[in-house]
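Hey team,

Filing this mostly as a record. A colleague (T.K.) asked me to run one chain through the structure pipeline before their review meeting, and I want the input and output archived in the tracker in case anyone asks later how it was produced. No errors, nothing strange. Just documentation.

Input sequence:
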Amino acid sequence: MSRLRAFIAVELPLEIRQNVQLATSSLRRDTGPLIRWVALENMHLTLKFLGDIPSENVEVLTQLTVAQADSFNSFDIHLSGIGAFPGPKRPRVIYIGIQAPAELEEFQRQVESATRRLGYNPEERVFSPHLTIGRVRQHVSADDQQKIRRASKGQRLTHLAQPE
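Output structure:
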């Protein structure tokens, strides 16, 4: 039985992902190889991380997710500033925050509930919608962390236009 590392996510329109890359180009340039940047085709909004699952479960999870999604009308999301997990002093993940409408939060709760009924562990952390754009490489020095903090703090998303 093969296993896959899996999650349930919302794929963002290509135009938004391209705009994110453009808007963060100076941050990417200023931090150089300190961060592994997420490729354009891999940017997404994670609703539920499942971990390593049997490949046989993918089909039922796909059906479940489509059924949940079909119960919602489309909605807008708004991208906000750049942040870091677990925090700016020791950045490990660089992200763009998402101002979540009530529909997105409800969709995430329904996905969480449905996966729990299938035996997947519930997420212990509160849902914090974000778009991961990079992961800080392991073993970066304190000076490198400071460089990342300065570059992130100075980053503005003024060039980030969203489709209407």
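Quick notes for T.K.: The longest helix spans residues 102-117. The mean pLDDT is 90.
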